[in-house]
Amino acid sequence: MHIDISGNNDYTRVQTLTDSHRKNFQQGETDAFIMAVSSWHANIDKGCSSSWFLKYIIIRNLQALKKFHFIPQQRCDVEK
């Protein structure tokens, strides 16, 4: 099974889904793989600004030695 990750400005090449701890894709079985990138600002330190700007996210495929850049260019604000 393969997936790709996509955003508004970039996407990855096809990635293979595997689980080294068990056999995948056996007849009559269900396999689930979830991949997500979440970003947020918790505003834990009251001395810091409550608003941050997220310029980019880099996902690295360590096996293939490749990087994928996603550029959200958005403000992270706990008030909104």
From TrEMBL:
InterPro entries: PLAT/LH2_dom_sf. This is Uncharacterized protein. It comes from the Eukaryota.
